[in-house]
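Quick start: what a row looks like.
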Amino acid sequence: MQLTAPSQVIERQLSKLTNNLLILNHENDTLHTQLKQNGFDVCTLHFDFQHHLNIPNDPTCTFGVQLTHHEPEQFDQIIVFYPKSKAFAQYLLHLAAFYLNPNGILWVVGDNRSGVKQLSKQIPDFFEPCRKLDQARHCLLFETSKQKSCIRFEMEDWFAEMMVQTPHGALSIASLPGVFSHKKLDQGTLLMLENLPKLKGRVLDFGCGYGVIACAIAKQFPHCDIEAVDINAMALESCRRTLSLNQCHGKVYPSNGLHQVDGLFDAIVSNPPFHDGIQHDLRVTKQFILDSRRCLKKNGQWQIVVNTHLKYTDIIQQAFKQSTIKAQTTQFKIFHSA
């Protein structure tokens, strides 16, 4: 697998890396493996499950919102791959400050379009002012060092909690930085909540985000067995918290598409993603549509909400011969099959 452009910039600077190294928000490539092959002692924290699967069965790689079994100030150098979300970038920078040794080196690398150009205005005061170390492949690499300790890092501090009104009552929502529609309910999800079909049995919420659809289903149809999957660690942690806040129950776990989902469902619902990082990418949703058929019981229900400008009609008709547009606005459509 070819290195992404930000990873190629890191590759240009291998001689400047220290040995005791942590990578936060690892890219969708094998940089970790290549660094280990070059003799570096490196750990990674993946927030994207698909990216994590590129490096299987390696105990130095973690998928989640934090490292497990690591104390603060453990690493001599940390590389942060800058995300498109500024709020998530702040989370990563504070996490880096927590794990980095005193006077340890921080590198931040990102695509020029990601917002990394504004890093000097965003860097927390745990660090010295940053300087540009390299520029290539339409990416920037910045360097700084830790100037004071950050011993405390609590997940509780990063949850944004809000009350949202749904057609079936108010729900308490917990959302971490980087989760889709952080701090507000998007209009596509609201349209889905207004048009939920009657559900029973085993129900899958694909691309669950912070769990508002799963939670609404649990409240409206309490006898359903709900499973919620997402590729994003911050979303999964948010979904668990949202279910707990509303005294709802569901199985929440990571899945790359439907590959980690077992068995058949009575219903599948989704507000599916159409981005991979800063890239506009419909492949995940198109594959989900094609794979959904095999995960449904006979006469099972399938319903998704999508942006009207995204062209899914042909592939939905390919997967589901009998499908209808259940509701639509100028921005969104709900496709339903039963």
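That is the whole record. Residues 159-337 form a domain with the Rossmann fold fold (CATH 3.40.50.150). Residues 174 and 241 are 6 Å apart (CA to CA).
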